[in-house]
Amino acid sequence: MTSTQTQRPIRILLADDHELVRAGIRTRLEEVDNLLIVGEAFDGRQALEMAGSLVPDIVLMDISMPVMNGLEATEAIRRRYPHMSVLVLSIYDNPEYVRGVMQAGARGYLLKDISAREMINAVTAIADGGYYFSSKVGPTLMEARPSCSGVDRYGLTEREREVLQGVARGQANKEIAKALGISVRTVESHRLNIRDKVGSGNAAHLYRIAQELQLV
């Protein structure tokens, strides 16, 4: 089994009208020690009802479901349970879908062709209070997400942003560790997580991302 940085179990409700899809996602996520699947819903209305009774931290929501679609369910969940986060899972990379779910209050949008590792990264980022979006929907994010400075479409945690800032400034791991009061090994671990989330460990690429996030 693998583990994530968040220590408290992250409670997850799965909502998808295809049983095989739910089973596949459950298998992926249950490989991680602190991810707990608390229930499965087969349509949007059931997802809304189960959100109230099971009180998950995150609802992993398919956008195309019967009775009540994922967009309507997301909006209803966010209205009734504002402390609850919704992560949308879809086969569609259409900008209209992305805008719709963001306006409904979702904190992330994943395409169903993602890897298990990316799904775990997304769940962890959202549990830590961040956002996460598949790279293929990146071009629409600045328009779709609530306006703010330094919008983070990569789902970096606050500590990862601090490490990225140090890297972009040309600091060595030892310097970053000293500045943040953490070990060099922890810095190295954060850098690996950053590389996985942004898709590259190249210094020039990391600098461009730091600029995008207004860290430098």
UniProtKB/TrEMBL annotation:
Modified residues (4-aspartylphosphate): D62
Domain HTH luxR-type: 149-214
SMART domains named among the record's database cross-references: HTH_LUXR, REC
Gene Ontology molecular function: DNA binding
The entry's keywords: DNA-binding, Phosphoprotein, Transcription, Transcription regulation
UniProt GO BP: phosphorelay signal transduction system; regulation of DNA-templated transcription
Residue ranges occupied by any Response regulatory domain in the UniProt entry: 11-127
Family matches, as InterPro entries: CheY-like_superfamily (IPR011006), NreC/VraR/RcsB-like_REC (IPR058245), Sig_transdc_resp-reg_C-effctor (IPR016032), Sig_transdc_resp-reg_receiver (IPR001789), Tscrpt_reg_LuxR_C (IPR000792), WalR-like (IPR039420)
Highest taxon in the source lineage: Bacteria
Protein name in UniProt: Response regulator containing a CheY-like receiver domain and an HTH DNA-binding domain
Organism, as annotated: Polymorphum gilvum (strain LMG 25793 / CGMCC 1.9160 / SL003B-26A1)
Lineage: Bacteria, Pseudomonadati, Pseudomonadota, Alphaproteobacteria, Rhodobacterales
